[in-house]
Amino acid sequence: MTLSCQGIGINTSREVAIGEAYLLNSGVTEISMREISKTQVDSEIDRFQAAVEATSNHLRGVREQIPGDTAPDISEFIDTHLLMLEDVAISQATISLIREKQFSAEWALQVRRDELVRVFDEMDDPYLRTRKDDVDHVVGQIQFVLAGGEPTHSDNLEGRVVVARDLTPAETIMMKNQGIAAFVTEFGGPLSHTAILARSLGIPAVVGIHQATTLFRQGETLVVDGAQGVVLADPTERILHHYRERISARLKREADLRRQVDLPTMTTDGYHIYLQANIELPEDIRISLDNRADGVGLFRTEFLYMNRPDPPSEEEQLEVYLAAVRELNGIPITIRTLDLGMDKSTGAISESGCMPAVNPALGLRAIRLCLKEPELFLPQLRAILRASAEGPVRLMIPMLSSVPELMQVLDLIERTKQELSNQHLHYDASLPIGGMIEIPAAAIAANAFARQLDFLSIGTNDLIQYTLAVDRMDEEVNFLFDPLHPAVLNLIQNTINAADQAGIPVSMCGEMAGDPHYIRLLIGMGLREMSMHPSALLEAREVIRHCNLTNLQERTERYFQLLIEQPNSTALFEEIFNLT
Ligand code: PEP
Ligand code: MG
Questions:
Q1: Which is it for strands 8-9 and 205-207: parallel, antiparallel or unpaired?
Q2: Beta-bridge mates of residue 278
Q3: Are 524 and 555 in contact (CB under 8 A)?
Q4: Nearest CA to ligand 1 atom 9
């Protein structure tokens, strides 16, 4: 049995899964040079063309299976790969190498791949540089078929555990549609977009298992324990029994929680807590409504911009926002303006040459990029404002770091409103404008932000990253990512107090809010609104219904007092909030 403990656990609604390993693009690790004889050239070219055709048929098959309501960029992602397969730069050039140099198909393709990657590497345009990943993806698929592997088909993935080096958001969504049981990747941290997406799609997953694609064998049984971040290969009957029991206990618990879905989200002493949903894609609205979210506390709009060369037009965005507003039917939605950069890079901003380069997390990201590139930002502002004419919309600004920066945004919003009025286009004149508090500077100066804004939302994913200098994407330092660090808690408390003093609502939309462990503490600290992945709503509601606010306030006060003396804040936390 292979036991791998390097993985980072992700809490999902179905945290454990058992299934057959399906190694994505497996078996093609290193291609070595191989020459063929002159007489083999024609059959080698046929072999290569057959592999290209099989890969292309596979991609077309996948494309057809994308449900109609999926974001358009997902299918564009597949189209890019199809175009690359047909591109002479890959296919014809490889055939020439087979013919002229008598290279094997695998080696010719590898040589061509290396040439292309070198060209991409030398390009100034960061968008084109990222196309290198697409080349690798396409070449990898052809190599896989050449090595005798079968391209992935939807029916093959049903109930299987996909093991891959990494998965794009598009692949994750497709695999969910294909009924995978779980996935395991070599790269990524718990806050990478793939991991967040897995959670919101309810797919058990473990990310960050080094060399997972060589560690596990095709077809062997894997137990994926997303809660512990452990993958067990070829388990014994006893282990399987243990996990099957856990899965059935989990299903029973889910059914129990489902039965409570219509109960009010209220503490035992009568305080209502507003539970909102974080959505990544419009289709997340369905589960948010099913789980009775009081609103959408965070609509991440980056997906509209990803995997495409041009940003979406105002009209395209308006259509998406309006569809969301209509589906929510009177339930408020908080649309966050573009937060591109870091893990959410796209080609959409390439033309301007303004991709963050040196240190993306500290660079031209989110609102900084939007202020620098008004032609990118203004269509979105107009679309959000116009959508507000049809239902309760709130606009939220990510990554604020200073008040003058905020004033600049507010000024742009005012001018956009004026422009819409001049054009006789409707919008909600009193649309609430809020800001994400996710940079320590903003949390420390939260009172100054609270004076200018209609609401605040604490983004703990970034707040923790920046406060503790722990890259949220880097699995090597993930153990340092600590929501209970006293510095983080003080910043959260300061933000809650600032909002209270200014008389405006404050929510939390980072992953911390959706973790049932922290809900009691957050309520004790004064938080009354939380936004989380929709699949976490049911459990959060149940936790809240067992809370007594007065009691939690006392515990929280004691916790903060003792925190000064006891450095091991996790143990103290568990003791005080009775989690042990
Ligand atoms: C956060 O930083 O906590 C947050 C909610 O935003 P994102 O994860 O999209 O950066
Ligand atoms: Mg953030």
A1: antiparallel
A2: 298
A3: yes
A4: 300
Ligand 1 neighbour 15 (Cβ under 6 A): no
- The CATH topology of domain 1-24+156-259 is Glucose Oxidase; domain 1 (3.50.30)
Pick among 3.30.200.20, 3.30.980.10, 3.20.20.60, 1.10.3720.10: CATH of 262-576: 3.20.20.60
Could you read off the pLDDT of 118-144 as tens digits, one per residue? 887 777 655 555 567 678 778 888 888
For 430, other C-beta atoms within 10 Å of its C-beta total 8
Cα 161 to middle of ligand 2, angstroms = 30
Does this model's pTM top 0.85? My answer is no
300 C-beta closer than 6 A to ligand 1: yes
SS3 at position 214? helix
pLDDT level of residue 354 (50, 70, 90 thresholds): very low
472 lines ligand 1 (CB under 6 A): no
Contact partners, residue 26, CB within 8 Å, separation at least 6: 144, 149, 163, 213, 218
Q: Dihedral through CA 540, CA 291, CA 183, CA 70, nearest 10?
A: -140
Per-residue model confidence (pLDDT) at position 294 = 98
